[in-house]
């Protein structure tokens, strides 16, 4: 019996596609779950193990406390024993507002503010006064945001046009609006003269209003008469009506329309810090708090180590381990002031990991969702050391992972399969590395990248000239057209700045597929996300003569009992929440009336139960066929039209998002880590899609760490040599075969991958 306590025991797991499986997960080991995207890994690890551990943890608190905490429904399983408290590091984007930074997210900022309040000179006061959100600490000019929104006259006015010909681009100030008509008919300006031909005096009058101390009036003609209204200039009017107010209160004019006419600039009063200039006078060893915030983390460690004051030293020693953790995870080039929203997927993942690793507790279960995501092969080693360190401190590590280097660090491998969706949900293999090699499993640990020995030749090229955003060092590069290109390099080397910044600015027609989430919900399905649900409803409506809304569970077709949710959640007071399938509609979400109408023998629910592979045999409308084919192309043929987006795995979401972009007719596709969340076999399928796009005459550019994609490319560009200030340069341009002879980090790992 003692041995069994060293294992997490799970019996009869039935969440999502799990087929009543049994598992024993050894404690104080690195357990890696692998398998195809959609095979059931997340259903075991997150929906069962993590959820039940969290649920049982909350049972230790009094009822009135539990009522304030997140409440978890018991997973569908027969038995779950010997669980320990969990720390979960998911792939979901980091939540936070526009002010959320690395410093605030990791809770290092409060310690730095405390440090300055105790030993900074001249003394300011309490720690809260070093915050841009405090009444004293925030900058009076920008209210603590660090930037000012200013109208851009080149965006507001097309100088080649006349007022009558809509020279003013901002609709509320242009005809046929009353303010536009007033400018055209009021008599102050020649309405048919191009703005560029105005005299200096007339131009200044139009844009800035009358000189100081003077007034000007322009006639406005009403249906019932006319009157003179004081003219104040386009810029003063725009600022008064649309900048100096709460933009969220705008109705007719949207916030986006206003922001399209403006530029964001660092506030000159606080130099972009958001802090009161008086706060910036307070310094430690010649540096103020903004200097501290903007230091690279490796430099910050040095500054914290210099502090000798006893009080300051004790505070610095509290901040030091958290900063060191980030540096040890390869993020030394970041700063505390770096906005969380600007981090790449791999950077955000590691910041989340660092946030959870400061604890000295043990006997914890650490759960990681593809921690290798966004990491260069050179950085994977740091990750594996971290996982081993957690295990060696008597913790249980559970990892969902596709990266072979991470899988090879496992003490126990659990492979789910055999396929995905309805074909998955079973344990294909459990055991050690050697056993997996011998078993007829899906994951091939000896897989090697295949070098493209016959790359396509490009006749034309895209040009980027003198790019210098973020850490780019005046980069100029030529990118071949109509071929498959991979842009690689370590985290923070400048890949995203070059491609999603400089490249898309030069080529705005680019179809960019980033790493953002798709807004999954229980009411969003594959059919709605891909934009074919309206077509399906129209077919049924036309066939039956019923209104379109009858075939929507968000409209008149909804089951009256569950209101289209398919489930009911009875009020069980302080007990664990319970979700019950709606008895009225049996989970279909639709009313009896909606289900009584059919097209080719199927009602709306039966149509939505069709898999993607089956759809085109039944619904052969060209519009539907085209969109459904893109889902099949990215390997999602096993999913059903009615599957909710909230039930998809990370890899499935990635491919769904990709499919939604592939349905657009484009010539330049730019994709940010399309391999994210995908098994090696899924990657092969995706590569075929990209090669097909190129064969049709498109340009496909991947920002990628995955060696399989890099090896299969026609052209490779590597950024580096490191991250942050030490990055931002082009290290290599050439074919994968030429890269094998190169002396760069990616080349080193490509050679190693091919030779192993």
From TrEMBL:
Residues 456-752 form the ABC transporter domain. It comes from the Bacteria. The keyword Cell division does not apply. Its main location: cytoplasm. PANTHER family: UVRABC SYSTEM PROTEIN A (PTHR43152:SF3). Belongs to the ABC transporter superfamily. UvrA family. This is UvrABC system protein A. It comes from Planomicrobium stackebrandtii.
């Amino acid at each position: 019996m003692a041995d069994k306590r060293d294992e997490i025991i799970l019996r009869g797991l039935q969440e999502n596609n799990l087929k009543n499986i049994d598992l024993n997960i050894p404690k104080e080991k690195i357990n890696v779950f692998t398998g195809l995207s959609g095979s059931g890994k997340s259903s075991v690890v997150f929906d069962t193990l993590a959820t039940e551990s969290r649920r049982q943890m909350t049972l230790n608190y009094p009822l009135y406390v539990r009522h304030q905490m997140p409440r978890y429904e018991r997973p569908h399983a027969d038995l779950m024993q010997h669980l320990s408290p969990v720390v979960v590091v998911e792939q979901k984007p980091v939540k936070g507002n526009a002010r959320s930074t690395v410093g605030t997210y990791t809770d290092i900022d409060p310690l730095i503010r405390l440090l300055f309040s105790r030993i900074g000179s001249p003394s300011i006061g309490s720690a809260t006064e070093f915050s841009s959100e405090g009444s004293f600490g925030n900058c009076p000019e920008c209210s603590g945001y660090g930037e000012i929104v200013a109208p851009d006259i080149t965006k507001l006015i097309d100088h080649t046009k006349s007022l009558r010909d809509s020279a003013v681009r901002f609709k509320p100030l242009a005809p046929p609006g009353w303010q536009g008509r007033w400018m055209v008919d009021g008599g102050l300006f020649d309405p048919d003269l191009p703005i560029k031909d105005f005299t200096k005096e007339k131009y200044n009058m139009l844009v800035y209003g009358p000189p100081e101390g003077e007034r000007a009036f322009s006639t406005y003609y009403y249906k019932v008469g006319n009157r003179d209204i004081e003219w104040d200039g386009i810029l003063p009017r725009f600022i008064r009506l649309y900048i100096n107010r709460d933009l969220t209160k705008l109705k007719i004019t949207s916030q986006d329309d206003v922001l399209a006419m403006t530029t964001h600039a660092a506030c000159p009063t606080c130099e972009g810090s958001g802090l009161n200039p008086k706060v910036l006078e307070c310094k430690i060893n010649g540096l103020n708090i903004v200097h501290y915030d903007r230091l690279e983390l490796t430099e910050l460690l040095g500054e914290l180590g210099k502090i000798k004051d006893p009080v300051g030293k004790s505070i610095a020693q509290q901040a030091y381990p958290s900063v060191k953790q980030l540096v040890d995870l390869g993020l030394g080039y970041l700063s505390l002031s770096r906005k969380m929203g600007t981090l790449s997927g791999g950077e955000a993942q590691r910041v989340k990991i660092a946030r959870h690793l400061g604890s000295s507790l043990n006997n914890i279960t650490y759960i990681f969702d593809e921690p290798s995501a966004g990491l260069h092969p050179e950085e994977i080693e740091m990750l594996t050391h971290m996982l081993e360190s957690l295990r060696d401190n008597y913790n249980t590590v559970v990892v969902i992972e596709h990266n072979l280097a991470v899988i090879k660090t496992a003490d126990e491998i659990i492979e789910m399969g055999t396929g995905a969706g309805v074909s998955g949900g079973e344990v294909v293999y459990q055991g050690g590395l050697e056993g997996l090699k011998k078993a007829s499993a899906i994951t091939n640990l000896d897989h090697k990248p295949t070098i493209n020995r016959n790359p396509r030749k490009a006749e034309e090229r895209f040009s980027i000239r003198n790019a210098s955003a973020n850490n780019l060092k005046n980069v100029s590069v030529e990118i071949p057209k109509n071929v498959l290109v991979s842009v690689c390099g370590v985290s923070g080397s400048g890949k995203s700045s070059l491609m999603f910044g400089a490249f898309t600015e030069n080529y705005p027609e680019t179809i960019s597929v980033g790493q953002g989430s798709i807004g999954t919900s229980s009411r969003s399905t594959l059919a709605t996300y891909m934009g074919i649900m309206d077509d399906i409803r129209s077919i049924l409506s036309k066939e039956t003569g019923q209104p379109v809304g009858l075939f929507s569970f968000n409209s008149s077709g909804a089951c009256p009992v569950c209101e289209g949710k398919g489930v009911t959640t009875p009020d069980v007071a302080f007990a664990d929440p319970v979700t019950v399938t709606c008895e009225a509609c049996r989970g279909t979400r639709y009313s009896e009336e909606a289900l009584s109408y059919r097209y080719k023998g199927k009602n709306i629910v039966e149509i939505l139960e069709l898999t993607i592979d089956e759809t085109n045999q039944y619904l052969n409308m060209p519009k539907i066929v085209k969109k459904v084919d893109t889902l099949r192309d990215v390997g999602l043929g096993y999913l059903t039209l009615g599957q909710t987006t909230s039930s998809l795995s990370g890899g499935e979401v990635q491919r769904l998002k990709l499919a939604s972009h592939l349905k657009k007719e484009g010539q330049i596709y730019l994709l940010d880590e399309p391999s994210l969340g995908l098994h090696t076999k899924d990657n092969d399928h995706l590569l075929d899609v990209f090669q097909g796009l190129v064969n049709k005459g498109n340009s496909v550019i991947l920002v990628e760490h995955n060696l399989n994609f890099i090896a299969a490319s026609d052209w490779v560009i590597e950024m580096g040599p490191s991250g942050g200030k030490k990055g931002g340069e082009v290290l290599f341009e050439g074919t994968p075969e030429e890269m094998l002879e190169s002396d760069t980090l990616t080349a080193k790992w490509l050679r190693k991958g091919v030779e192993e």
